[in-house]
Amino acid sequence: MIYVALIGLTLIIVRGTIFRPVRRIWPALLECSQCTGMWVGMAAGAMGTPQEEGGRVASAIIVGAATSLLSLLTDAVLLRLLGEPELESEKKP
Hints:
Helix content is 69%, strand content 0%. The protein is built from 5 helices and no strands. The mean pLDDT is 83. It starts with a helix and ends in an 11-residue tail after the last helix. It has helices at 2-15, 20-23, 27-30, 33-46, 55-82. By secondary structure, it is an all-alpha fold.
């Protein structure tokens, strides 16, 4: 269930209009669902408990990699099904 939340957070950062001003700061990172998913997952994995096998570093790497792949796949499927989102200013009357 945590991966669904992490994928959702990633897609909100990458595609959400509320984060458009933030994406302008570093577009190469924040407009890529795979890149953003990696960092979102690593942050979530690093917040895990240190008693987990391998510790927080291993957890951060594993959760980051999984979130990266799942975010990329989810974004690709949604783009295929729904198409590229239009900006309000680009909509034709």
